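[job 0417] fold request received: Alpha/beta hydrolase
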Amino acid sequence: MKPAIAVVDVQGNFKVHTEFYASPTARKTIILVNGSLATTAAFAQTLKYLHPQFNVVLYDQPYAGQSKAHNSNVRPITKEDEAYILLELIERFKVDYLQSFSWGGVPAMMALSQRPARLEKAVITSFSPLLNAPMLDYLQKGLISLQAVDGVGLGHLVNNTIGKHLPSLFKRFNHRHISSLDEHEYRQMYAHVNQVVHLENHCQMECLAAIDIPLLFVNGEHDEYTSPQDVRLFAEHLDDCQFATVDNAGHFLDMEHKTAWTQTRDVLLGFLQGPALREPAHRPQSEIQHAVAV
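[job 0417] inference complete; emitting structure tokens
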């Protein structure tokens, strides 16, 4: 399964590495929005159940992965920049659905508030409108490592907190990836996290009323950082939203174990392919391979 690779020029401001996985039987296209420090490789597990059901678009932020060689990276980009890039890619690839992971939920929901005409549904995974005590503690410790450009320390922090439910193999890939980033990537994340911890409202709740498509929020049962309880606050601000909890899973959902992979798959496909959310009736075992995920 080889994608079509393209470096997309976003109105002369950014150059973005994209991967388009076409399916001859698919009628819809979905774009996936990465979390912090991640690259397209982070969606290796998700790609397995979305393709060939859909055409799938993956991309690296300008400062990360295979995009960073095409950009100057002299200053951190903002979440507004990331939302702007996402809107451009939605139009270019004629996207119907969107799925975000973790901090990718911020630019995703900012883009959704602009009401891109093509989008029909969106799935927001491992994200919460609240910065609860565990998340604030994680972010504040992360700031120390990021400011010191301590990739090794940051890798240990991620694996001991939001990544603590990952299999040991995935933790090794995570640590190797996080500890070997370029200096500008740590600066990028420091700027973002420093802004987040000083904001009362990191996901701009006042913009949510503009979102006019169905949303599904998916969180892990044991994710104390973006918990299933906290995410339900979105119901007070959105007209059409649903919630699903993946059993016995933490922050990384479909990467953590086979049953979580299958339940996540069934919940997402049920929402995207049907008029309403359906609970998975059967959870067969499915082989999981490695992926870098942050």
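[job 0417] notes: Confidence is low (pLDDT under 50) at residues 276-294. Residues 113 and 211 are 5 Å apart (CA to CA).
[job 0417] exit 0
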